[in-house]
Design a protein that fits this description.
Layout: E1 10-11, E2 22-24, H1 37-42, E3 47-50, E4 61-64, H2 68-79, E5 88-93, H3 98-111, E6 116-119, H4 133-145, E7 150-154, H5 157-161, E8 172-175, H6 183-186, H7 189-206, E9 213-217, H8 221-228, E10 233-238, E11 245-253, E12 256-263, E13 266-272, H9 279-292, H10 297-306, E14 315-316, E15 324-328, H11 333-344, E16 351-355, H12 365-376, E17 379-382, H13 392-400, E18 408-411, H14 415-425, E19 431-435, E20 442-445, E21 448-451, H15 454-464, E22 475-476
Helix pairs in contact: 2-4, 3-9, 3-10, 11-12, 12-13, 14-15
Bound molecules: adenosine-5'-diphosphate and magnesium ion.
The site of adenosine-5'-diphosphate has 21 residues, from helix 3, helix 9 and helix 11.
């Protein structure tokens, strides 16, 4: 066991160091903590944990470890007195559906009279879906101190590879699905999958808790591979049948979903205000996990009936026009395909899709999303998402490279003008989908975050009234 000078505080950010603290130098995606040791010592660090030989001033203890990220995670769990031992901790991973499933579970837990904490894209101070290990343990300590008995967290593949959840004691884990994303970080699907699988094959295994469980999407090929060799009690869910939690029937409408679901406790009818058939998987995952935690069926059905959804996921923007306007967070090829198929099933006259792709991220998915959007929409308005440091026009061109010939398409780099264009084109009965940014309230362009909220912009444009001839760009491509 690591023997440390008695230290006052633990820090991985040199600016957070206080007199007597222990500074752990971790290498980040952009920078490396080893470069900030002198600043950490200036701010009072008396112990530094490093991954390689570095000089430290006299009187400062130096501990060289193989993996300082692993060390930070274990030290943080110890420092905050292992809060996840006191919580029923559930991790949800998968390319899409993490925020929806964790939010659903937290809502159902409350319906069951339990106090639960939620950690994910919409609920972290840093805006990072899975915070750094130190921040994570601190949040869990605060949750436990606040009386929470359960905690539901989104676990990203980045977090698993960067040891952020090391030191967490999970009770259960959910696998929603796996499809192309983050290949800029993982390079290939095998690596991406093997990182996701660590939640089940490593973190569930080392957890000292009893009755560990895993909920897995049996319709997903990666899910089936995963389910094959796990020590935990596996609950499979499926829309195709043959699983413990199986869909028997479903009806999708604008008002929501009606499902018949076979469970070990018999077949239940579920009514959910969530829009879109792809949400069926999220609901089945929530039912399976709730049963694994032995929540009463009444709380499950009532929780699902009263869960109105997550901001920016199939969020309908009320408007006085006779067409539907939907804002969704779909930013992967699979998510965009699922959302467009779900909207088509609701029989709009036409689907007009506004979307872009993020800069400094997985470029390979751009032409794929262009292709899917053109195949499943009637009109396309390709625009900017968060270009970050990349040239917005270059991203547009890469997306347009995948768009099917003959598609009615517009390329409008300015996102506000693109949304105005789509709303202008929309006729009675049409559905305008604005995809990619969902709940985000900013747009990141050239390293600068500017206020931008798709829903707000729609409202502003609608309030402004119909566009006059000489207003704005919008080249028909
Ligand atoms: N089960 C699912 N299968 C496929 N796509 C989904 C699913 N759930 C949500 N999506 C799509 O992914 C987007 C993000 O959903 P979210 O629950 O926030 O997932 P995550 O947290 O994994 O990013 C949604 O706006 C929707 O377009
Ligand atoms: Mg999320």
């Amino acid at each position: 066991m690591l023997r440390l000078n008695p230290y006052t505080e633990l820090a991985y950010h040199s600016k957070a160091c206080k007199p007597g603290c222990c500074f752990v130098a971790i290498s980040g995606l952009q920078t490396d903590g080893h470069q900030y040791i002198s600043e950490a010592v200036r701010n009072g660090a008396k112990t530094v944990v490093v991954e390689r030989e570095v000089d430290v001033p006299r009187g400062v203890a130096k501990i060289v470890v193989e993996d300082s990220r692993d060390a930070l995670a274990r030290l943080s769990a110890f420092h905050f007195n292992e809060p996840t031992r006191e919580l029923t901790l559930v991790g949800v991973t998968g390319t899409n559906g993490k925020t929806t499933v964790t939010s659903l579970l937290s809502h159902i837990a409350k319906q069951a009279g339990l106090s639960s904490g939620l950690l994910g894209t919409l609920h972290t101070p840093s805006g990072r879906t899975t915070p750094e290990s130190y921040d994570l343990q601190k949040i869990f300590r605060n949750m436990a101190a606040g009386g929470a008995t359960h905690a539901f967290m989104e676990v990203t593949s980045h977090a698993l590879q960067l040891k952020r959840v090391t030191g967490c004691h999970f009770n259960g884990a959910v696998f929603t699905n796996l499809s192309r994303d983050h290949l800029d970080f993982h390079e290939n699907m095998e690596n991406y999958f093997s990182q996701k699988a660590r939640l089940f094959r490593q973190h569930l295994v080392v957890s000292e808790k009893k009755n560990l469980w895993a909920v897995i999407n049996a319709d997903d090929p990666y899910g089936r591979t995963l389910a094959g060799d796990l020590p935990a009690r596996v609950w499979l869910f499926s829309q195709k049948g043959g699983a413990e939690i199986s869909l028997q029937g479903a009806a999708a409408a604008w008002e929501g979903l009606k499902l018949e679901v076979k469970t070990p406790q018999g077949t239940v009818s579920l009514h959910s205000p969530l829009k879109g058939r792809f949400q069926v998987n999220n609901l089945l995952a929530a039912v399976a996990a709730s049963l694994a935690m032995e929540f009463p069926m009444e709380a499950i059905t009532a929780g699902i009936a009263s869960f109105s959804g997550v901001p920016g996921r199939m969020e309908a923007v009320p408007n006085g026009r006779k067409n539907k306007i939907v804002v969704d967070y779909a930013h992967t090829p699979a998510a965009l395909e699922n959302v467009l198929e779900a909207l088509r099933e609701l029989n709009p006259e036409r689907i007009i899709t506004v979307f872009g792709c993020g800069g400094d991220r997985d470029r390979g998915k751009r032409p794929q999303m262009g292709k899917i959007a053109s195949q499943k929409s009637d009109i396309l308005v390709v625009t900017s998402d968060n270009p970050r440091s990349e040239d917005p026009q270059k991203i547009l061109n890469e997306i347009l490279g995948g768009v099917q010939p003959g598609t009615e398409k517009y390329a409008v780099a300015d996102r506000r003008a693109a949304i105005a264009r789509a709303l202008d084109l929309a006729k009675e009965g049409d559905c305008v989908l604005i995809a990619g940014k969902g709940h985000e309230t900013y747009q990141e362009i050239a390293g600068e975050k500017r206020l931008f909220d798709d829903r707000e912009v729609v409202r502003e444009i609608l309030d402004r009234g119909p566009r006059t001839k000489d207003q704005g760009p919008g080249t028909r491509d």
